[in-house]
Amino acid sequence: MPKTLVLDLDETLIHSTSRPLRAHAEAGHMVEVVLGGRCTLYHVYKRPFVDYFLRKVSSWYTLVIFTASMQEYADPVIDWLDAGRGILSRRMFRESCTQLPNGSYTKDLSLIEQDLSRVCLIDNSPVSYNVNPANGIPIEGWISDPSDEALLHLLPVLDSLRFATDVRRILGIRLFN
């Protein structure tokens, strides 16, 4: 049975903004979100190599998106990333997070997988995995750099982690930071 790889959404896999980014040659994907009767249009951009990354790691892991975003916004973005492939098996949203007094959100990975030796989380915000710090894999936040290769750099680590008895023992070394 494959291990579980939990992925953050915003600034990890994609970046979204209410104004289009001129730095991007390709047009962003448009997502219309209605919250409290107000409609907002978001331009969503994929981090470089995200499609290749998802295709590769989906053959190694069960993939779960765990975002502090609202479901009304995140669902259409995840649908776009998944593109009908069915590789993103579960989705967890803001209501599954714990909000800290400073307004940031943490993610308890035991909500996804009881056996924490078999789960890791890639997130640009270390606060997100402070409940399960031994399971976190940091990644630099991404907004618009077209030459970003951070997802590619994680592939060798993720390739080896899938064979580990306990991912926390490997991640505890932190040699890849």
Automatic annotation (TrEMBL):
Domain FCP1 homology: 1-161
GO MF annotation list: phosphatase activity
NCBIfam families found in the cross-reference section: HIF-SF_euk
Taxonomic lineage of the native organism: Eukaryota, Fungi, Dikarya, Basidiomycota, Agaricomycotina
Domain of life, per lineage: Eukaryota
SUPFAM superfamilies: HAD-like (SSF56784)
Entry protein name: FCP1 homology domain-containing protein
Pfam family, one: NIF
